[in-house]
Inverse folding.
């Protein structure tokens, strides 16, 4: 019977948390989650996020991810070569692949692999995926890859990144929104825009 991995010690936990805290601005995280379609095909969703801002800087969907596809997603996420210093990822074979690790090395990105069965070490990505599931994908049954890509794009770009406030950001949004001077309620005019066909609405002040 294989030995079960020992749980991390308090010292190890604090050491990891200290590293994350000290490098928030230069750390990204990456992870996969899956979504079944209406005909039971499994779609794989990749998200890449910035630790400090909580912004999802890139996502994509595929039915059959491989190392070349993952590398291409990072190229798409860093079109001007402005990537992170550190990348947090789990032990997915695609992230551990020679091709992906060589790409990170050539891009000046240090791979920070989590311990086996330690999702807490990639807590930012795990939390973001949990939010996406609860607020988006749990409410739909996608028809195909194109369908879920469209819905996720709407949710992430038009709601999550730009309008959804985060407790960890002191109530701010990943992409900062412009501040307005306070006005009286009777003078305030708002325009509502639906997201995901009305599942959510965002509101903007109009003159």
């Amino acid at each position: 019977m294989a030995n079960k991995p020992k749980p991390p010690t308090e010292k190890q936990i604090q050491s990891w948390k200290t590293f994350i805290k000290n490098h928030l601005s230069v750390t990204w995280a990456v992870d996969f989650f899956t979504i079944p379609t209406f005909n039971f095909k499994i779609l794989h969703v990749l998200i890449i996020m910035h630790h400090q801002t909580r912004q999802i800087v890139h996502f994509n969907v595929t039915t059959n991810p491989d190392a070349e596809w993952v590398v291409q997603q990072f190229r798409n996420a860093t079109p001007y070569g402005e990537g992170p210093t550190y990348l947090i990822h789990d032990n997915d074979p695609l992230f551990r692949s020679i091709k992906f690790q060589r790409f990170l090395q050539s891009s000046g990105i240090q791979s920070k692999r989590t311990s086996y069965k330690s999702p807490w070490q990639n807590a930012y990505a795990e939390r973001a995926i949990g939010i996406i599931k609860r607020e988006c994908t749990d409410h739909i049954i996608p028809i195909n890859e194109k369908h879920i890509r469209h819905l996720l794009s709407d949710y992430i770009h038009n709601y999550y990144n730009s309008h959804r406030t985060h407790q960890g950001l002191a109530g701010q949004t990943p992409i900062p929104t412009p501040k307005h001077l306070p006005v009286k309620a009777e003078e305030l005019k708002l325009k509502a825009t639906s997201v995901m066909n009305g599942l959510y609405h965002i509101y903007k002040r109009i003159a």
